């Protein structure tokens, strides 16, 4: 018989598995279609915020009585909606430094994949939630969840500054060999001249966000 805590464990570990599928460093040589499908699954997959809420509101399904008794009270829907509302533009940034991760993803016709990952000191984005689900996602990030900017329907970049680190993951062996011997400007120069096509960019703010006083007027 499956216990509630085991059910919750399964949901959380499946989320981590899907996240690992999106990271070529953790799961090399995974077909790009599998990575894209993992990304699509994660767009509306419940994070820790929602699983904690489920454990409190439905302990017989996703938690146990101890969780329900000791967890902090969950804000009512009315209270949450007073904080984050649809069709309102919010300017957000990472709550901590060096928590803006930008991943540019390239792929060639052979299915080889290279991700250029940059960590920025910080940056700001304009988000306009289009429904209550997107409001809840933004609210969860305010309480410490990671947030994938490009999963929102309406968003824009305000600024990104100070690249703190850069990394290249995936099928990078040939690229690094070429960069060591040939006259290439950088990784992007090599990729563009070796039939790699840029297919998407992921923007992620990790470990929570804060709201700016800026109302979103640009």
Short characterization:
The chain has 218 residues and is an alpha+beta fold. The chain has helices spanning 4-21, 32-42, 48-57, 59-62, 65-70, 77-83, 132-142, 173-181, 187-192, and strands spanning 90-94, 100-107, 113-127, 147-148, 155-170, 197-205, 209-211.
Based on the model shown, name its key terms.
27% strand; 9 helices; 7 strands; 2 domains; 218 residues; alpha+beta; globular
Description of the structure:
Residues about 65-80 have low confidence and may be disordered. The protein has helices spanning about 5-20, 30-40, 50-55, 60, 65-70, 75-85, 130-140, 175-180, 185-190; strands at about 90-95, 100-105, 115-125, 145-150, 155-170, 195-205, 210. Strands 1, 2, 3, 4, 5, 6 and 7 form a seven-stranded antiparallel beta sheet that branches. The chain is of the alpha+beta class. Helix 1 crosses helix 2 (about 30-40). It folds into two domains: about 1-75, no CATH class; about 80-218, no CATH class. The longest helix has 18 residues, at about 5-20. The protein contains nine helices and seven strands; from the N terminus they run H-H-H-H-H-H-E-E-E-H-E-E-H-H-E-E.
């Amino acid at each position: 018989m499956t216990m509630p805590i085991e059910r919750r464990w399964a949901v959380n570990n499946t989320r981590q598995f899907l996240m690992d599928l999106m990271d070529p460093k953790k799961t090399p040589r995974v077909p790009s279609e599998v990575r894209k499908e993992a990304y699509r699954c994660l767009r509306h997959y419940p994070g820790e915020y929602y699983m904690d809420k489920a454990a409190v509101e439905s302990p017989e399904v996703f938690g146990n009585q101890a969780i329900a008794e000791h967890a902090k009270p969950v804000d009512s829907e009315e209270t949450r909606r007073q904080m984050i509302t649809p069709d309102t533009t919010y300017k957000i940034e990472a709550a901590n430094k060096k928590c803006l991760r930008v991943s540019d993803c390239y792929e060639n016709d052979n299915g080889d994949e290279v991700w250029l990952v940059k960590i920025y000191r910080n940056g700001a984005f304009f988000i306009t939630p289009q429904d209550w689900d997107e409001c809840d996602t933004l609210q969860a990030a305010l309480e410490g969840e990671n947030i994938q900017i490009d999963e929102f329907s309406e968003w824009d970049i305000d600024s990104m500054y100070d690249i703190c680190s850069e990394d290249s993951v995936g099928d990078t062996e040939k690229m690094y060999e070429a960069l060591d011997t040939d006259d290439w400007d950088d990784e992007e120069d090599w990729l563009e001249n070796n039939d790699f096509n840029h297919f998407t960019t992921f923007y992620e703010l990790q470990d929570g966000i804060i709201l700016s006083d800026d109302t979103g007027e640009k």
